[in-house]
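Our consortium's second objective concerns turning raw sequence data into structural hypotheses that experimental partners can test. To show how far this objective has progressed, the report includes one record in full. It was chosen at random from the queue rather than selected for favorable results. The single chain below, 376 residues long, was entered without modification.
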Amino acid sequence: MNTKRIRFLDRMAQGKVARRDMLRAAAAFGVGVAAMPVRARAANTPMVLEWTGYDIPEMFPAYVEKYGSKPDFAIFGDETEAFQKVRAGFQADMMHPCTDTVVDFHLAGMTVPIDTARLSNWKDVIPSLKTTQGVTLDGNVIMVPTDWGNSSVIYRTDLVDPAYLEAESWSILFDERYAGRIASREGDVNVQIAGLIQGLDKFQVFKMTDEQIEATRPLVEQLMRVVRVFWDDPSEFEQAMASGEIVAAYAWNSSVKNLRAQGVPVKYMVPKEGMLIWLCGLTVLNTGTGDQGMIYDFLDAWLAPEVGKYMIEQYGYGHGNARAFEIATPEAIADLGFSTDPSVMLQNGVLFQPVPGDIRAKYINLFEETRAAAGS
């Protein structure tokens, strides 16, 4: 993920684009790019519909070693674009969605149940991820969980009111004492955060009624008065946080890694309302013509613990294989800023859920209306 998630090198989301762009940037800077032997490409090579940057060989080294080349890739900007592309007839064998978007592909009849018995690394997948809604649907595994992490608040421990160190809350992003020194993620996720602050639970926040949406308006208006920047790329606020111009921001785990590496005194918050959790993975589609054996080799290669080690150490994200946390360096794991047991996070956090289209449109309208009114 340049990041719309570096991830410093990244650009990615849900905002997932940013997460993946970072991997591309890492490759461009020569961060551990694997050498690939040159061989003739196999017939029926799978087509993978993927985020920018997740097409680097470090994500599937066993596949490259076996076949001598990468599968074919088509890059998308967000899951909506990918969905429309497949629905329009694009022949993809695999796709990299997240738990809040994979249901769109499933309901459209595009997904194929995954035979986990064909995956040698499935036995090492973190148990709580195997049964998460989105990984399984209608009793079948339809997504191999590969990458996961958080969206939460990162803040300067030396610049905010000490009370926030004891009673952590998303409300710091709305605090008028820090007007002009707050950064948040671009988009309607801010409406969902306002709903969490107002006491909605981790399910209702993704399907608010009209009355509940309207009740968030004062908070969203307050956010518009205090925010300095709505970011797509974390690098847009990381430098300002390092200098002290920004004291708190909506952030991915990668920003914790980046700022701590610079010696900046930051903490990744565990808000009392709950951390936001994203979980993404690989789904097999029924629209491609790729070889089934190659498809399963690709899925299994992504699940290898060595891939998880690389992801943890280079980008600051979690991986689906529990063994990855055993072989990654303790320093890299500490920099993640979250528990390495996702069952704890899934129980206490807020997993991104699908938002019905008509409701999302209302979230977006509220966000844009209040921003326009504030001149943000």
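The partners drew two points from this record. The longest helix spans residues 357-374. Residues 1-40 have pLDDT under 50 and may be disordered. Both points have been shared with the crystallography group to help prioritize constructs.
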